[in-house]
């Protein structure tokens, strides 16, 4: 092989051609199955009574701070709650113990790095006191008081005797993380019996991430799955409070482990569970008309996803539109963030960006080589538009793909035209970042549009029947 590598230009015999052809496997790509997983996860939202209480508390707090401001003559800044970097607490599930000490340390370091990156980007109104997750009333309760004119309306009247535990996807939530729950004997009486006591909760926590490193059926079912995730608890304003990330043990810990790709995979999953999810799009909040930093004056955005004229589903929220306009160099006011249509039934949405338009974004369904993946401005804009976070948009990594190419870039009608980004035929050329050589290819997500896809690590060549060159393996780090 190596003698071949240094070879002078030569004509390969047919058998060699076949052998060379077999090496030209495109960098293996990882598909994200978030939507399938999230659909199986039960999400529990904190009860609205807590919301009313919170709002009342905030009102009192605001009045107090307004008074203080007036006394001190300070500018009108809410001192009650100003957003702070999100504190994501990692809880490693016990059964993840079957890793070698080395592997475990490595995975924890990867997740900690991903958490650091996300915390440096997103700020929230911090949870006051220890974080306690709500129990699912539909699980522990057999019967709710349903008369709205009674005091115990929507409270539990009788316990479900089969009630045991709460789960987050397939992780059992420790009782200590859970709020207590009570049974009210009659519709109007405040008399109650405690079904489960209140746990002590988690201090200094705004989001609880259950990390499970395991080889599950979902991992085994598809070779491209590295990790998957779901959120399972939200606060009364819809912000996710807890979720689980399952890392497929054999994929991210074995011989195929690559640190940067692993970190990116965890960041991708974290962005899903924190809000970039089709299950959450309709709960995003509009905080533009409130001056309250604590988010109490936000309103529901309602439905934010709609089809454009070509049938492509897009997210139409202000920051997303302006980020995409800026990126593509377009003033089109209808330039919503396009969503991947492949894994979604017609007219439905998925939780990924359309890869024809936003190739290289960390939120496309398939992440390419780690050197090509970016935490891009459109993704950060989407997180900003959830209304739950203040996002440091200045830290976005610029996306080369499509930069300044106009509002129709990446559409099925224009991608056939030869450009810096798209190619036609099946010849060889440079990947658009000029880091890799590749072949002009399409895939299921590109729907007939073709791009130069990098060859598998280390194998490159100039012309099929002239030179075969083996390059040293390049591990992607940026
Ligand atoms: C632990 O890992 C080994 C292989 O490394 C496997 O054979 C064994 O079944 C695993 N045990 C558990 C409890 O998962
Ligand atoms: C609901 O409760 C109120 C007050 O106790 C009572 O007057 C009313 O009849 C109840 N309604 C129904 C439908 O039971
Ligand atoms: C791209 O191709 C379409 C259809 O082939 C054509 O109508 C259009 O003018 C082309 N656009 C550019 C910028 O070349
Ligand atoms: C292979 O070589 C022949 C003759 O040298 C040339 O005509 C042909 O274009 C080459 N094929 C490729 C794929 O480069």
Automatic annotation (TrEMBL):
Class of enzymatic activity (EC top level): hydrolase
Residues annotated as binding Zn(2+): 268, 272, 352
One term of GO molecular function: metalloendopeptidase activity
Enzyme Commission number, as recorded: 3.4.24.-
Residues of the signal peptide: 1-29
GO terms of biological process kind: cell adhesion; proteolysis
Compartments in which it is found: Membrane
Listed cofactors: Zn(2+)
Domain of life, per lineage: Eukaryota
Record bears the keyword Zinc: yes
Gene Ontology annotations for the cellular component aspect, listed alphabetically: cytoplasm; membrane
Residues of the active site: 269
Membrane topology: Single-pass type I membrane protein
Cofactor note text: Binds 1 zinc ion per subunit.
One Pfam short name: Peptidase_M8
Family: Belongs to the peptidase M8 family.
PANTHER family from the UniProt entry: CILIATED LEFT-RIGHT ORGANIZER METALLOPEPTIDASE, LEISHMANOLYSIN-LIKE PEPTIDASE
Name the UniProt record assigns to this protein: Leishmanolysin-like peptidase
Provenance organism: Xyrichtys novacula (Pearly razorfish)
